[in-house]
Write a structure and sequence with these properties.
By secondary structure, the protein is of the alpha/beta class. It folds into two domains: 142 residues, Alpha-Beta Complex (Aspartate Aminotransferase, domain 1), CATH 3.90.1150; 272 residues, 3-Layer(aba) Sandwich (Aspartate Aminotransferase, domain 2), CATH 3.40.640.10. 42% of the residues lie in helices and 15% in strands. The protein has a seven-stranded mixed beta sheet, sandwiched between helices. Strands 1-2-3-13 form a four-stranded mixed beta sheet. Strands 11-12-15-14 form a four-stranded antiparallel beta sheet. Helix 12 links the parallel strand 7 and strand 8. Helix 5 runs antiparallel to helix 15 and helix 11 runs parallel beside helix 12. The longest helix is centred in the last third of the chain and has 21 residues. The radius of gyration is 22 Å and the shape is globular. The two termini are 40 Å apart. Bound molecules: 3-[O-phosphonopyridoxyl]--amino-benzoic acid. 3-[O-phosphonopyridoxyl]--amino-benzoic acid (PXG) binds next to helix 7. The site of 3-[O-phosphonopyridoxyl]--amino-benzoic acid (PXG) has 17 residues, from helix 7.
Length: 466
């Protein structure tokens, strides 16, 4: 395993897990985790990985049911990606895209993305994280409406449980109260409506399609309430990811599309998780028939090997922005050549290996079918998902769709048990989410489901449910 031979990342015999944990506790501030929990339990030190498995500092081999953080789409240990980065670093490690300049890899990537993306999407603005890309979208969309002579059209409509990132604007777009509570968010001009989340928000007797229709109607009503002349855009993940894998019924997106078009509201698809094959299509927009005006991409663009994100836009949006002259917006690392070289190699490998076709035709349906076997479990309320992303909603009483209170404790407990069984999931509220590398094999899917059931069994025993 490369991690044990590379002096920069090795876990030398003298450095025990406890020592790493002690250093981590004293000096490292983690995102999204209670520092007191890190202090008490110690961080998990991940020292290497190969294929779909991680290796921790205790030498344990763990199946990565999360593809890192919804991103390591080609799996770990892909030397082609390392070589692409190395070659580019030797040739041109950095140059900016500000001074009417650009590295060839960056230009080529913008061409490849225009070819790969659906519909009229043809232009790319690069950044390094999904959050930066979504911040960029807020600025560019507001400028777009200024240039169109409609400066009142500034408000973004998003959804409860949407995740769009952690910067001020991206967290404002997101629909999490706990995130809004940090930094006095949302900023002005961000509104939230219900998502098409049948299990938790469907009224008794309502079908998923009826909940979907009601969630779409909430967008229409919000536009009416604010006035269409004040609404800039609707933003949505085709499938809500970090918010608990909320898969919309088929009638939801066509309604959103109609409502936005009728009200001259732009459609922004946040494809940070759903992009690059996750749903069995290259983009979630294709899976759900969405004609996006702008798209956010990140994560799977480089399989997470280097940070890179982008805002993609149609000719129609770009032409308005371009006529407005200089766009005073950009990042030092916009279009970073090394990240671009890795993205190009990543996309080349995905095409060469037919990764997206395999997810659509083979591993995706197999994964969904096998995970749905968990529906017979007393603790499982619902299994939902598409392609290689899924959420298992743990519930007190599935027939009544009753959730646990307070929310999140059962999910966190289950997450621990799953790790002890040797598989990583992501617990969000009491939904245990999985988004494995797209290269996962049928045998590894069997391993994932077997370990998932064992972890859920342990959780149910703790709760006295079996
Ligand atoms: N949009 C979506 C749909 C995302 O899932 C972002 C934007 C922001 O990307 P950056 O690169 O700025 O993180 C994301 C990121 C989790 C978790 O706990 C999910 C994400 C990030 C961190 C944690 O599941 N998604």
């Amino acid at each position: 395993m490369t991690a044990t031979t590379n002096p920069a990342t090795a876990n030398p015999a003298g450095t025990a897990t406890a020592q790493w944990q002690d250093l981590d506790r004293r000096h490292h501030v983690h995102p999204f985790i209670d520092p007191r929990v890190v202090a008490e339990k110690g961080t998990r030190v991940i020292v290497g990985a190969e294929g779909r498995h991680l290796v921790d500092s205790e030498g344990r081999r763990i199946l990565d049911g999360m593809g890192g953080l919804w991103c390591v789409n080609l799996g770990y240990g892909r030397e082609e990606l390392a070589r692409a980065a190395y070659d580019q670093m030797v040739e041109l490690p950095y140059y900016n895209t500000f001074f009417r300049s650009a590295p060839p890899a960056t230009i080529e990537l913008s061409r490849v993305l225009a070819e790969l993306t659906p519909g009229a999407i043809a232009h790319t603005f690069f950044s390094s994280s999904g959050s930066e890309a979504n911040d960029t979208i807020v600025r560019l969309v507001r400028r777009y409406w200024d240039l169109r002579g409609k400066p009142e059209k500034k408000t973004f409509i998003s959804r409860t449980y949407a995740y769009h990132g952690s910067t001020m604007a991206a967290a404002s777009l997101g629909g999490f109260e706990a995130m809004h509570a940090v930094g006095d968010l949302p900023l002005p001009g961000f509104e939230h409506v219900m998502p098409p989340y049948w299990f938790a928000m469907g009224t008794p007797g309502e079908t998923p399609e009826e909940t979907g229709a009601r969630a779409a109607r909430a967008v229409e009503e919000k536009i009416a309430e604010l006035g269409a002349d004040r609404v800039a855009a609707f933003i949505g993940e085709p499938v809500i990811g970090a918010g608990g894998v909320i898969v919309p019924p088929d009638n939801y997106w066509p309604e959103i599309q109609r409502i936005c078009r009728e009200n001259d509201v732009l459609i922004v698809c946040d494809e940070v998780i759903t992009g690059f094959g996750r749903t069995g299509e290259w983009f979630g927009a294709q899976k759900f028939g969405i004609e996006a005006d702008l798209m956010t991409i990140a994560k799977g663009l480089t399989s997470g090997y280097l940070p890179m994100s982008a805002v993609l836009m149609t000719d129609a949006v770009y032409d308005v922005l371009a006529e407005g002259g200089v766009i005073p917006h950009g990042y030092t690392y916009s279009g970073h050549p090394v990240a671009a070289a890795v993205a190009l190699e990543n996309l080349r490998l995905m095409k060469e290996e037919g990764v997206v076709d395999r997810v659509r035709e083979d591993t995706g349906p197999y994964f969904q079918a096998r995970l749905r076997e968990l529906n017979d479990h007393p603790l499982v309320g619902e299994v939902r998902g598409v392609g290689l992303v899924a959420g298992v909603e743990l519930s007190k009483d599935k027939t009544r769709r009753e959730l646990f209170e307070p929310m999140g404790q059962v999910g966190a407990l289950c997450h621990e048990h799953l790790y002890d069984e040797g598989v990583v999931f992501r617990a969000m509220r009491d939904v245990i989410c999985t988004s494995p590398p797209l290269t996962i094999t049928r045998d590894e899917i069997d391993e994932l489901v077997t370990k998932a059931r064992a972890g859920i069994d342990r959780t149910a025993r703790d709760l006295g449910m079996m």
